[in-house]
Design brief:
1 helix, single chain, globular, Immunoglobulin-like, alpha+beta
Length: 109
């Protein structure tokens, strides 16, 4: 019985670890110096991968004091920004190079 139970328990642990290892990914675009969508909602307590696609020809800097993130994204390119795990609340972000128009927020529920 032990010979069967151990491999089954090990397989269950490996499967559970693989399920936990998957990180939620959310697409976020920069177009016409604006973030699209402007609001991103994510679950509390989970790490999330923001897939930022700068569709403008000029660079933009994803920045958030509250998220403690800062990343320059060249024109017509993509970047990944990891956030979380976070407590419930709202976390603003902005484009450093176009602060008047490039603004958004992460809502954590």
């Amino acid at each position: 019985m032990v010979r069967i139970a151990f491999p089954l328990a090990f397989a269950a642990l490996v499967a559970a670890g693989a399920a936990q290892a998957e990180t939620m990914a959310i697409d976020l675009a920069i177009k016409d110096h604006r973030f699209q969508p402007e609001t991103v909602t994510i679950p509390a307590g989970e790490k999330v991968k923001l897939m930022v696609h700068n569709q403008d020809a000029t660079p933009e800097e994803f920045e958030s004091y509250e998220l403690n993130r800062e990343k320059i994204i060249p024109g017509n390119s993509k970047a990944v920004v990891f956030v979380g795990p976070l407590d419930p609340g709202e976390y603003p972000f902005f484009g450093e190079f176009n602060q008047d128009t490039a603004q958004g927020r992460v809502v954590v529920e």
